[in-house]
Amino acid sequence: MTTEQMTGAQALVRALENVGVDTVFGIPGGAILPAYDPIFDSTKLRHILVRHEQGAGHAAQGYAQVTGKVGVCMATSGPGATNLVTAISDAYMDSVPIVAITGQVASSLIGTDGFQEADIAGITMPITKHNFLVTNAEEIGRTVAEAFHIAGTGRPGPVLVDISKDALQATVEFEWPVQLQLPGYRPVTRPHSKQVREAARLIARAERPVLYVGGGVLKAGAAAELKVLTELTGAPVVTTLMAKGALPDSHPQHMGMPGMHGSVGAVGALQRSDLLVVLGARFDDRVTGNLDGFAPHAKVVHADIDPAEISKNRHADVPIVGDAREVIADLIVAVQAEHEAGRTGDYTDWWRQLDAWRDTYPLGYDTPDDGSLSPQYVIERIGRLVGPEAYYVAGVGQHQMWTAQFVKYERPGAFLNSGGAGTMGYAVPAAMGAKAGAPGSQVWAIDGDGCFQMTNQELATCAIEGIPIKVAIINNGNLGMVRQWQTLFYEGRYSNTTLHSQKSPERAVGTTMIPDFVKLAEAYGCIGLRCDRAEDVDEVIAKAMEINDAPVVIDFVVHQDAMVWPMVAAGTTNDDIKIARDMAPDWENGD
Q1: Are residues 302 and 393 in the same domain?
Q2: Residue 217 half-sphere exposure, CB side, CA atoms within 13 Å?
Q3: Residue 566 lies in a domain
Q4: pLDDT tier at 504 (50, 70, 90 boundaries)?
Q5: Residue 304 covered by a domain
């Protein structure tokens, strides 16, 4: 153990270096300012000055998701800290490991409504895995070590460390390594062998099993094990929005994404199953639809590292608490034992039905009659031309669903998006963080014009810091998903969903685009391109791919009334899935 005298701020920076941090996204301000002085001298930390604290939080998420490390963001007290809340909430919903470090007013001012005071620990208590308020400089080093341990182990998630300004300014004897003091924190990773054997027994006896795979499989790094289990059992697999790439889209047993905008085959598989083997998923309402009508004839094996998820939404007949990688590895052994004992499931009839659904109702889209650009075509061509080795980062809305549907994911971790929270503005800063974490990879943000306008200021950060992301704006001039709902459920009454097409009666011309995304990109130091014709899409994408020394923004002007299909309307059951307006699949015949 080494001991050295330094300020609390120096202790913070030294602790961050010692736990392996190499990148911090943040903005300085009064209460956190003491920490920025030793950051200036650090040779191990790269600080990326963002333009908004929300951007810092999402960038930390993107960084964490591509590196497998804990992402770090930093902000000052009051509004600086509260601007992080949206990203912290997003990370909590999607189990992304980040540590948010915030400055706090001096300890003598806490509770007095001091300038830029906010109880950020209290505000974030429901949306963090844990949080700390540090007012004693001696606790800084240990708290940082504990925060990173909590964020990155068990079910990953965000941890907040709020440090008072006087603690940062005080002098302290800094010791490292430190002894963690977390007596109540013991995440279970090893599954119970009896439960695993019972799960294998059910798989061998089932006639219509489905492996329902969630984001926990990706968090556990269990894609290889999942492929072995898939092929060993012969069962169909569905991967949720957060699990895209856990099994390659091209795998013959992969039925696609389930849920509100999932494939008919995936939804049908869940609905008609007699056994759900749920791995690292949480029965999210966007997957289940009306829970009372979800998979009504299925027994449930539910494996999750978080015991709070087991039987939270759907009763588990066989609950298994453990890390998905270890659960799947043990399941492989147990299923093999069933096979060696002569107990192997016969899924011939099941696959006949599944193949009928898959062949009859493939994902597809219509080309607009007026010759305007199809957004699905744009996204499909990006995926095809850019390839499976890139990272694709989506915002939230129609373009997010199309990116899930029409880009083919062949490897784990290639798709980043805001799933649980559905945060508009996620894509650009998350792509920035992803590119900072994987500078040798192509990173494409596929964003909507609504989402893009919430956090596009981070393009300035990208340009200045040398982070050359690509941004494809799917520009339909509207809040697209909201417009779709207004079309379907509000009789086409488009209340406050048109974004930047403004009539100009004084000049009697067509429309003025506000803002002009190409000019905006150029103002931020990026390359701006525009495309509104199908025949130009490939050329524009290729041009963007050739530019690697600056961020590139492409304004794809697309048809405003394209819709995401299939769709399960909110409040209905998955049996009510529509493949187009007023069109439903024939579940029994698949034709």
Answers
A1: no
A2: 32
A3: no
A4: very low
A5: yes
